[in-house]
Amino acid sequence: VYHTPTTFLAQAVCYFIAAVLCIPIHFEVILSQKEGKALPLKVVLNYFKSNLEGSQIFITSIIIMATGFSYTTVLPVLTNHIFPGQSQVFGIAMTFCAIGGIVATIVLPSILKHLSTVKMYYLSSILFGIALLGIIIH
Question: Does the keyword Transmembrane apply (predicted)?
Fold first, then answer.
């Protein structure tokens, strides 16, 4: 039913477009503003108005998620392609994804002491895109 290489290629293209939209992001230190009591939505909108970088990251994340580019949507297709009819492999793969998330949560603060957040954002984005292309070529 699924043509896996085409699916991954389409998602890689969507991911590339989202990554290109992130390129003009520049981070500057902005002093925090004192907000009075306001509705949470109004606070968020004011934040996005005063911090263009934050709104660009949010929009990029929305684009990536809206195009189905999430490992939780890609993983079932990938495991079915590589291990057809073996649903237990999907469970194992999800377990390893969870373990990877826990390890990243523990290790990331140490890495961010040596790399800036911006460099880490772009590095992880590039590595993820390369991994996608590796799946297509495979």
Answer: yes
